[in-house]
Every structure is written in C-alpha cells, then in structure tokens.
Amino acid sequence: MTEKPVERRRISRRRFIAAAGGAAGSAALGANAVGPFFLRHVSAQDQGEITIAFDSPQFWKDQAAAFTEATGIKVNYEDVPFPQLHDRYLAAFVGGSSDYDVVHLRDDWVAEFGSKGFLEPITDRITPEMREEFIPNGFDYLSYDGQVYGVPRYLWLWQFYFNTDFVQEAPKTWDDVLTLAEQHTGDGAYGYIMTLGSTLSINHFTIHLRARGGELFDGRQPTFNTPEGREALQEMLAFIEKEVTDPASFELTATGNTMDIFNQGSIAMMLNTPQVFASANDPEKSKIVGKVKVALVPGATLPSASYSETGAIGIPAASKNKDLAWEFVKFVTTAEQQKQMALVLGRIPARPDVLNDPEVLEKYPNFQVVAEQSQYKMGMSVTLPESSEVNRVLSNELVAALRGSKSVEDALADAEEGVRRIVGE
Asked: Is the confidence at residue 335, as pLDDT, over 90?
C-alpha cells in the first residue's frame, strides 16, 4: 500500500527563527569550506570520481571544482538545461543506467522516483544534528514511504513582487491586487502578469486556492473541485476578463521569461521566484533598478498562502559510487556552501542560520519576508508518484477555463475526473 504523501505543514515563525541559532557559515567557497557535517578529507586510497547532471549556472560547476580541490574526488559535470533534467534522469533510471551518482531533486520527483526504486534511501546517513540544521520539515518534504531521499539545498518560494512606479504599498488581498491592476493598466502597461504556459498555471491556482483554506489533494484524493476551488479559479479568470493581465501570460513557460518582461517596466505586479530581485536590480538586465519591492503574498479568507519547491540533492539507487556521492552531498549543503549559493545565485538557503546571515540579508532583502511567509501554507501541491500526468491534465483544464473555452465548473469537474483516472481513486 502506498503511503500518503507528506502533508505540507506550516512552519511556525518561532521554529523557523529558532532554527537559526547555530553559527552561520561565513567561509568563502573553496577547499577550506568544512562545516557541521564533519566533512572529512578523503584519503588517497579513497579517491575516485563521480558524475552529476545538473543545470548550467557557473556557480554549480565552480562548487564541483571546489569539492574536488577539498577531497581529491573528481567530478564529471554533465550540463543539462533545467527543463530537461527530469526526463534525462527518468530515461537513465528506466534504462538501468548507473551513469549518474548525484542528481537534483524536487519534492514531486522524490515521490515519483522514490516510489519506483530509482533513488537511494539516505535515512540512515542523516543524524539528528543534521536534521536540526535545516528548515523545519525540510526532510519531510523529501521523504516517501518512510524513507528520506534528499538533502535540502534551497527553497524555490513564490513571492509577490511589485514595481513602485505603479504601486507604493503592498496589497493585502487578491481583491486589492485586482483593483490596483485595473488602475495601472493602459498606455502599454499591464497591472498584472502570470506564467500560464507548461504546467505553471497550477502554481497560481494553488496559491489562490490555499488563500481560501483549500488544497489540491488530501492524500491521493483530489480536493480542488470544491466551492473554494471554483472561487479561486474564478478569481484568476477575473484578471483575464478585465484585461489587466498581459496576454503574453499564456505563452510564458518559465518564470524567468515572466521576469524578463517585468524587468522592462511595463508590469505593476506579479508572482514569481527568488531570482527576480537580483535580476530586477541588475542595470544590464533591467529598467527598474531600485524600484522593486517584495511582500507577503496576498490572501483571501486567510491572510496569505504561497507555493514552494525544495531544491534538493540525492543519490540514484544504481550509482556505483554511493559513498563518494554522499561526500559531495554533504559538501554542497554545508552552511558555508549554502551561503555562497545564496550570495552568488540569489537562491533562498534551506538552512535558517544562512537565511538570517546579515551579509545575505543585506544583499537580498527579499529574503526577509521568508520567515513570515512560512507561517502560512507553502510547499508543492502535487507530490504523487503520478505527478507528471496529474499536472498535465490539471493544467490543461485550468488553461481551458482561463482562455474561456470551458466554464470554471466544467473545467474543474473534468480535471477531477481525469485525475481520478490517473491516481485510481
């Protein structure tokens, strides 16, 4: 019998801040970055090599080189664009390949890959002390059927951004957002923009649904075709029908594409990921330097709700170098390495001591709202072994309603029927 997916529990502000009591790492990226995971330098007879496949930012490659310098373990880095990672891993796993020793993980990939035996359980490698060093519930998000499969690296939290050329004070509710969007649409500007391509419409819908106390699933039971779900989708539709949302929203398949439009100065407000703040304040990329603020995501029945993914790292079950791979996992998730990741890439670190580091907060003031946001629902909304199929069906129906080709009621009913066929409930 398949265990229920882990419930996305709220993280109390007190727990979140208290977890930062440990000393924050401050060493620079390099061979001396040895943190509380008691990283050992591998002796000569232990040296070997591992292969990892991950995204293209130079920081990750520099980090791999620093690991080699610190340990003598060679890292073969396979550069794969992030949108292709899941399918690249899946093809390797299904084919029985042992090519990869370390892989990037998300909450939903843990459920999908872990349920099929493609990932190595690391439960016995994680000490109680290690658990305390990361965000509360961080390892729960990366567990399936009682086993932990990943170590948290960063949070990909959706935040609310606004351009102060249009909006001076953060709106508190989605009704406020709609009112402001109407006021600031015209003369080539739009009050709002969404990322509705691919399956990202689900993230927007999740946030609006959670703001009403709803959730997409209860275990394996779909719970989105409810009064709260219909209100949430109708609210999203209002932003389209009132023509306050940039029509490009339907074609945007990545939050980075949406960010690029926002940076040109013609959009008042949006939901997006942590990459925005640094990009919007880069004069080579942005026309709105110094004009972007970040606030608690607006609410409805509840004060706020958001969506987040855990960027994590794990080991394939087929790897022939699991011990060496574990050394890499420990190295890149130390406080020192997470601090450098935060400073260089602008990713929200998964360690509260690093999140509250003064140098990190000075560079990324958008991180200051994370502890407050964590009081409310966040986390991924679909974390089933069948996540990929579920996301495809649900997103298609959501977009059909938003494009006006189906009613809100019919779209959610059809989505529920399709999802139930997939999950067998």
From this structure: yes
The CA distance from 113 to 122, in Å, is 14
- Sort residue 198 into left (φ over 0), alpha (ψ -120 to 50) or beta: left
Burial of 351 (0-12, 13-18, 19+ CB in 10 A): buried
CA dihedral 295, 296, 300, 306 (to 10 degrees): 120
Closest CA to 359 of 25, 66, 136: 25
CB 408 within 8 A of CB 401: yes
Radius of gyration for the alpha carbons in the chain, expressed in angstroms and rounded: 21
Residue closest to 351 by CA, chosen among 9, 3, 17: 17
Interval 351-367: pLDDT, tens: 999 999 999 999 999 99
Please give the structure tokens belonging to residue 74: 């060679």
**Tokens 């029509």 appear where?**
247
Cα→Cα distances 100→52, 54, 65, 117, Å: 6, 10, 17, 15
Pairing of strands 190-193, 267-272: parallel
Q: Average pLDDT over the chain, rounded to whole?
A: 90
* SS3 (DSSP) at 292: strand
- For residue 364, give the nearest of 352, 348, 340 by alpha carbon: 348
**What CA–CA distance (Å, rounded) separates 346 from 62?**
16
Q: How far apart are alpha carbons 323 and 124 in whole angstroms?
A: 13
